[in-house]
Amino acid sequence: MRSDSELLDIPVAPFELTERRRRNQELNIAEYRDRAVRLESRPLALFVELTQNCNLSCPMCRFGEKYQKEWNMTEELYERLADELFPSVHLVDIRGWGESTMLPLFGRHVARALSYRVKLRLVTNGQINRPPVWDMMMRAHGLVTISVDAADPELFTKLRGGGTIPRLERTLAELVSARDRHGVPRDHLSFNTVASLDNLHDLANVVSLAARMDVPTVVIHPMVASLDDPSHLRHDLDRTQEAYAAAAERGRREGVVVQLGAAPDPSLAIPEMVRRPACMHPWSYAYVRYDGSVGFCDHLLGSDDYTLGNLRDSTFEEIWNGERWQRLRQAHTTGDIPDQFAPCRYTYAQRYIDFEYLVHPDREAGLVSNQTHREVTFRRDPREAPSVPWVPAADGPEALIPLDAVTGRMREARD
Ligand SMILES: C[S@@+](CC[C@H](N)C(=O)[O-])C[C@H]1O[C@@H](n2cnc3c(N)ncnc32)[C@H](O)[C@@H]1O
Ligand code: SF4
């Protein structure tokens, strides 16, 4: 039986903008602006995958693999990251393609990160309630995002692979109480909702659930899936547009910000808001998988196809400024994204700003929500805005797709 109660006595404090962090941020933003491919600065946001094990088996994500101890990051690797990178990063996000809260050592990892006074962020399925950890995170004004794909209990259990609404509500009540006890801004708690044809009818109710539980923000992301998947939003754009409008309206009535992490489809994207080249992740983000492989984007956590080196064989600096990472930055500068990084094309077709503004403050202007836009979607002929597959077809051409082909045409159509 795990006990987190000793965590209550550990002193922690909110983010500290040390001189080292301030200088690193200034330099990193300047290097991004100048599209440098070799960087003097270090990442501003670090995603640490503590585990790839999960207590649930959500159908859009995985198929209930058995727990494997080898899928947990070793303490040695975590310590190495903490020593080397936590002093210069602003944001440490301790989730990966798994569920961090199921680790017995989770509380200790949180305490270790907070000893560096970073902005600590967690994305969790909210099924494991660890009140002392929540208390510690909220004392340090951390950010917790809870994944909620339905308000209807049966649908929730189906989409969240065995999770339940009562367990979610218990965790949420504890988090909200810790947030308010420690005077943390309300928006440090938010929902992440994955939209698909399976839950469009319940989307507005998820917003009401957030209102009822005192969570002020719901960020909706379209389900990433193959186009063959019958639940893919592309198969019913009318219903998708109506459901997003209804969720936005419900949020306005009930005081919830309904933010779109990405447009539901390229043909429903607000052209001038789609992430403008170049995406800052290859300059400012780094993620480390449980096994030490290093990548550049929080959206590409699951697979080592998208990593650029491994800390078992190289130093972080060798990977961060290695030939592969430099080529990737170059590709984002010119817009010719190689097939290996095809998901980046999806970004340029339909992603908006999510929480990048936590490290690049000017990115806040790229948010799309029911507060910033009266209509949260903009409908165009889907033939003009083709779906951009996450993974290129096996027999597809090797050709590079210039970004303009995707975003340029979209913006022209709007002008
Ligand atoms: C992979 S999970 C890991 C963290 C934690 N286990 C959770 O569920 O919140 C991170 C986020 O990715 C979302 N996600 C999983 N599969 C997805 C998919 N196919 N398309 C879009 N988002 C997905 C989850 O709902 C969750 O909000
Ligand atoms: S979405 Fe999260 S909770 Fe669901 S299976 Fe994936 S990692 Fe686990």
Automatic annotation (TrEMBL):
Named cofactor requirement(s): [4Fe-4S] cluster
Span of domain 4Fe4S-binding SPASM: 279-334
Keywords: 4Fe-4S, Coiled coil, Iron, Iron-sulfur, Metal-binding, S-adenosyl-L-methionine
Coiled coil: 15-42
A family per Pfam: SPASM
Keyword S-adenosyl-L-methionine belongs to the record: yes
InterPro entries named among the record's database cross-references: 4Fe4S-binding_SPASM_dom (IPR023885), Aldolase_TIM (IPR013785), MoaA_NifB_PqqE_Fe-S-bd_CS (IPR000385), Radical_SAM_PqqE_MftC-like (IPR050377), rSAM (IPR007197), rSAM_sf (IPR058240)
Organism (species): Actinokineospora fastidiosa
Top-level taxonomic group: Bacteria
Limits of the Radical SAM core domain: 48-178
GO MF terms, alphabetically ordered: 4 iron, 4 sulfur cluster binding; catalytic activity; metal ion binding
Protein name: Radical SAM protein
